[in-house]
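Section: Multi-chain targets

For targets with more than one molecule, the full set of components is provided together so that the structure can be written out for the assembly as a whole rather than chain by chain. Components appear in the order listed by the source. The example entry contains two components.
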Amino acid sequence: MIVTSTNHRFRKFKSLAMNGLCVVCAFLVILPLAVILFYLIQKGASSLNLAFFTGVPKPAGSVGGGMGNAIVGTLELLVLASCVGVPVGVLGGIYLSEYGGERLNSWIRFWADVLNGVPSIVWGMVAYALVVLPMKGFSAWAGGLALGFIMVPLVLRTTEEVLVLVPRSYREAALALGLPQWKTIVRIVLPTALRGIITGILLAMGRVAGETAPLLFTAFGNSNWNRHLAEPIAALPLQIFSYAIAPYDDWNRQAWAGALVLVALTFCLSLGVRLFSRGRFQKNT
Amino acid sequence: MNLTMTPEEIKTAPGRNVEQPKAAASKPENRTAPAPGAAAARPFSALSVKNLSVFFAKNQVLKSVSIEIQAQAVTAIIGPSGCGKSTFLRALNRMHELIPTARVEGDIRLFGQDIYGKDVEPVIVRRRVGMVFQKSNPFPTMSIGENVTVGLRLNGVRNRAMLMEQTEKSLRMAALWDEVKDRLNAPAVSLSGGQQQRLCIARALAVQPEVLLMDEPASALDPLATSKIEDLIRELKKDYTIVIVTHNMQQAARASDHTAFFYMGELVEFGATPQIFTAPKEKRTEDYVTGRFG
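Its structure, encoded as tokens over all components, is:
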């Protein structure tokens, strides 16, 4: 007899130990998030007041003012970036999943993954060369374009992945009803995968919302409200960066508060739209 | 395989040597173009297949199949796995074209019209030749009612009264109306497996096809749901031409008028269902229907 009671007990012990290890690792993953949130709230919450959300930075050294312009600026940049990243990414993802040939697709996928790995500051340089130099000035356009470039491969790959997950049988059923392929895609496949696509877009937006490097020499930052998209624009990460390294205690506190707002923004973004995008009949996935 | 066998067998099949009705126009009403009584007295072919070969890349999966599928009757396709049954079915409404490497040779005429003709769109062929699949596949983002009318709505029908009328008519034909009439707005995926499959049949019927192809429509269902589907098939043949692929020989014997036995990509024997099951002419058919192989 090979299975004795002793090695059975040892097996049970091993199973328990491995289970425990998995639980510990799972908690290790969410621990940093909890710590960061706690720290941000502790350091930043005291500086959160109406002026912080509505005001613009005060001159160096003086207490008060706020990051209203940076908060709005970040939102504007996100909209501009989405105007670039969402259509290109989603349509490209549709092409990869529904149309393209195998050879071409593997090349596009490969390059999308390479682009995904390109340091974000490089995208800032690309936008600098494409927009800032010809327009002879930093602008919201340039910042939005730089962030949009970063979104494209992210949205493209997630869109493709969720579209591939839509069972083939739905496409076949639609085509067998005599629907043309584009209608099958637009009315059957996309709605089925909508939640996944929106989640992918939100993840990409969340990723670029915190990008600082590509904005340094595109959006540049602005200590006042942006009145025109062709002018420099403030953004939360830029503002946090300059306030965090400033030698004024009040600015340092505001930098913490800004970071808290930035985290809350990405959090609300994904939470809110996820709720809205929930399919009528789809359960949580 | 002795290919000369095939046409001889086909001669015994009803629907052979009959004048083709003139090509039905794409209007669904023309489905019943021949007088209803004529179908019994003078059977005619809905689908006339000649020397059909299908290749996937270099692999030939269907070898010069010729068959006449009688209108307003049920034709069952039986045979062991991998014999080309599903491929044959999919060639009948050009669904195989979804596979890029697939290639078809031969001639298929739907009420006289070449469905592989140069200016024939696969979309139009599929509107006239509907399909029900092995696994029920109602669209998960739509309600029961929306699933029924999806083919009409997405083909541009806006008239609500007409959509409602078609919903009821199709669901009644699919023997599902009484079970769902009070919850047409409920999600389609809330139905049981058998109900979902009947919903898929209703969805296929709503676009008023002339021929309905069924690819093992009951293989994933329990016996009770299966018998409902079979009753339904017998009922539907009054109005439709039905081709059903099945693994279940009892089902073929119960539900069909004609049976075609496929083996290794060839049509071995085609004839009236009772003849195939009680007096098969081919040894291989006999071996298969008596359960000696397959």
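The longest strand of chain B covers residues 45-56.
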